[in-house]
Each structure stands twice: as C-alpha cells, then as structure tokens.
Amino acid sequence: MNDKPIFIIDDDDEDLEFIKNALFELNVENEIIVFDDGLKFIDFIKKTQNRAFFILCDINMHKKNGLELKKIIFDDEELRVKCVPFIFLSTSGASREVMKAYSYGVQGYFIKPDTLAKTKEMLEFIMKYWSHSVHPIS
Fold this sequence. Notes:
Elements: E1 6-9, H1 13-25, E2 32-35, H2 38-47, E3 54-57, H3 66-74, H4 77-82, E4 86-90, H5 95-103, E5 108-111, H6 116-132
Helix pairs in contact: 1-6
C-alpha cells in the first residue's frame, strides 16, 4: 500500500473516532493527520511538501464547510493538484451537494456508514482503489 499520510478533515469527535478505529482495525500503518477545521488544513497544505495517500473530508463543519473548502482548493491550481485524491465522507447524500462536490473536482463522495464494519469495508475499498491508481504527482 501507499505509505503517504491520510488527511482527515472533520470537526465531529465521534465520527473521527469511528474512522480512526476502523483504520486501526484494518491495520493501516499510514500516518493519520486530523484537522478539525478546513482553514487549518489549507494553512497546513500550503506550507508542506507532504502528499496525501488520500484526503477524507466532511461537508458539514462549523467554521468552513467542506464544499467551501473544496472550492478554495479547486480555485488554486497548485492546491488542486496537491490535494488529490480528495474524497467527501458525509452524512448527507443530497443530490445538490453531490453535484457541487463533483463540479469542484472531488474524486469521490461517500455517505458515512452507520456501523464500524461498514466503515471498515468502505475504507478498505478506498485504500485499495487509491493504492492501485496513479496520482498526478507521485
């Protein structure tokens, strides 16, 4: 598998624990870097040379929602290439949000599962897919 870090952007502590537990049970060895605020992520990603294995981002966050964050990234050519793959993981499957997400170049949109087993299955699928995919900046 890819040894780059996994970035998670989510301000819900319970959801974060669920995701981290699923990754732990999958024996994921990648570094997990968590941001509870999209602006903190933007600040970090602008300053680092780190490339992500993938980025998981919630949509419904307090300070800057995921769609606003993805628009900032989409509008900046350097960030747009640097932030691939960017995947939304949300409780909302509203078609309007899904369409907007894809219009900003998101590489995936998943509904947050309601069990640890389903979360593990989804994350395992995402990890396998992106470990076999060629990234724009490898």
